[in-house]
Amino acid sequence: MIAGKDEWRCDLAETYHIYDYKALPAETLAVLSSGLRENSRIQMKISGRKEVPHDLLIADIADTLRAIVYSLSGSKTEPEWWRNLILCENKPNDHIKENRAIRTYDTVDDFHRAWSEITGR
Fold this sequence. Notes:
The protein has 121 residues and is mainly alpha-helical. 55% of the residues lie in helices and 0% in strands. The chain is built from six helices and no strands.
């Protein structure tokens, strides 16, 4: 079987409602295939990407917004969040602490005390 054939057939069916691609001339299929969107299954497979550029933009916006909110909070502690963009791109993230302890609280008051210590309020 040709690599990506299933993805290509799914894209043709989804985009153009073509279920019997063998009934069309090869030239027509080539033209239609070149018009498939950037995040189509076959385009993603050919390029080797797992993420869609639009999703990367949204992840970067979320990361930037989180950094702005954090900087406005006045916190004195180092942030411990994962950057969405790094996770989307599957790149190593050296600043993440691998063995971070998960904090749990018995009561709401315990949480609020800990939150006050973290934010310095």
